[in-house]
Design brief:
By secondary structure, the chain is an alpha+beta fold. Helices cover 33% and strands 39% of the residues.
Length: 208
């Protein structure tokens, strides 16, 4: 698994103009290819009168799904530069649709490549990105007497507390970088006098 990746901080649209052609780049996060296609369909419906609605998306932390379309622009001048911009910025789980309204001036292949790639880059800069890091899920089980202090200590040291459940004992789920697991295990034994349960779970991604 990738140690980290970036994704779009919020959905939105950024507009640029190149030689009287309008380029509107709509960005959104997409956890599946179906979500990316649904976003594309919504943009195409909204801008059904546009000259082109070109798209690119990258799904998977390891970029396992990559798709792009020139939507009628000369081959390789729209979708591919959009996709390359997303990959160059380490963007994942993201879909970009650039809608072009033709302004009467032909841009040429080089101009189109710069315009479409640039529209995505400017939209990313404007809307912002967030980094998500890989971590291990750890489940801690403590008695009710110690639970409050353990949870407070976890939060005060910047640990990501993902879930707290109360039953016969208190179960706290946290996320840890791989490198911190053994040190955390020792810390937990110290603060609970060895009474806490510790269970190592799978891997996931969280905000850095």
């Amino acid at each position: 698994m990738q140690d980290e990746y970036r994704t779009v901080a919020r959905a939105g649209v950024h507009e640029t103009e190149v030689n009287r052609s309008r380029f509107l780049c709509a960005l959104a996060s997409a956890t599946t290819e179906q979500e990316a296609q649904a976003f594309l369909a919504a943009v195409r419906k909204e801008h059904a009168d546009a000259t082109h609605n070109c798209f690119a998306y990258v799904i998977g932390a390891d970029a396992s799904v990559q798709k792009a379309s020139d939507d009628g622009e000369p081959g390789g001048t729209a979708g591919v530069p959009m996709l390359q911009m997303l990959l160059r910025r380490d963007m994942r789980y993201v879909v970009a649709v650039v809608t072009r309204y033709y302004g009467g001036v032909k841009l040429g292949a080089g101009g189109l490549i710069r315009a479409y790639g640039g529209a995505v880059g400017e939209a990313l800069d404007t809307l912002g990105t967030i980094t998500r890091k890989r971590f291990r899920l750890v489940t801690v089980t403590v008695d009710h007497q110690r639970a409050g202090k353990v949870e407070n200590d976890l939060r005060s040291t910047g640990r990501e507390v993902r879930d707290v459940r109360y039953g016969e004992a208190v179960t706290i789920e946290i996320g840890l970088p791989d490198a911190d697991v053994e040190a955390f295990r020792g810390w937990l034994a110290d603060v609970t006098a060895g009474t806490a349960g510790f269970e190592l779970g799978g891997e996931a991604y969280g905000d850095a």
